[in-house]
Amino acid sequence: FVRRMRVLCLLALGILVLESSCQPQCILDQSKTIVIAVKTYRPFVFFSSNTTLEFQGFSVEVWREIAGNLGVKFEFKHYAAVEDVLASVRNGTADVGIAAITITSQRLNNGIVFS
Length: 115
Hints:
- It is built from five helices and seven strands, in the order αβαβββαβαβαβ.
- It is globular, with a radius of gyration of 13 Å.
- By secondary structure, it is α/β, with parallel strands linked by helices.
């Protein structure tokens, strides 16, 4: 039940996957390390403390659960602004973006796919 709720909440958060160089089959490739672009915004993504760079938060924990279930490796890459997260996924620097990202018509028209 908890896993299902996490996945449902993940979908509701607006975690995005863009049309980029990494298509869905790439994301399931267990030999590839998936790059996750993140922007800190509590409670979704934040650093565990001022002295460590470990990410925590609701979206981070949901992503870890999904990656664990899929058996894929991943790494987080921090960006200062949501637009930087979106650009990194759009240009293929990252495979997935996680942040408190609002769905807008402009973002939808620019090829951003929200899930």
